[in-house]
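Fold tokens
===========
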Amino acid sequence: MVDLLDPSNVITRMFNAQKYDEMYEYCKNLLEKIPNDMVALQNISLSLIYLKKFDEAIVYCNKVLEIKNSDTYALKNKIYALENLKKYDQVLELCQKILSVDSKDIWALNSMGLSLNELNRHQDALECYDTALVIDPNDITALMNKAISLSHLGKYKDAIIYYDMAQTIDSKLKELPIAKSRLFEKLGISDDAFLAAQGVLNKDMEKIKNDAKENKCSVFHQFCQDEFEKSNK
């Protein structure tokens, strides 16, 4: 039977209900009784992150790390707080610390890449995303961020490929067709830019364009005709 009064269960209920102020006060009361209570320390920092009190969150993360200097949960909370404070050099140090314990931590690799992007070190960021994609070729975050890095480096065609890969995995992400379309526009490929904006995958574009040629109409009209036929079916 679940103990509803167990601190972990109480905190979970507050977190799920988005009652971050109450969660903070509850953890604070626990710490007044037991200053080194790890559950309270971990979750008070989490509540402070959601309350956007990032400096204060870091204080509690540091208290956890004084007890256990390689605590991954505290390190990741601290990284999130530092990212919001735009202290990217410090983020890199903490990501390296996580990766020294677990070189396959994809979250840390992606966070490291993001900070390198923010520091305009896009080529270095690519190495992080490539490492993450070796571990999990379908990691959406790594695919999207690799596309962003390639775009910053002016490698638009390559960036489009990675946006398309991400879109193939998760077609519900609305930002992907827009990002892909903008890159086609930069390359001056207007028909592909239009099709990308409609959510068409790269592999399906050629057929639509070839059909438009055969039917002697614009790509826009061909796409509309295809959509009309699909709706009728």
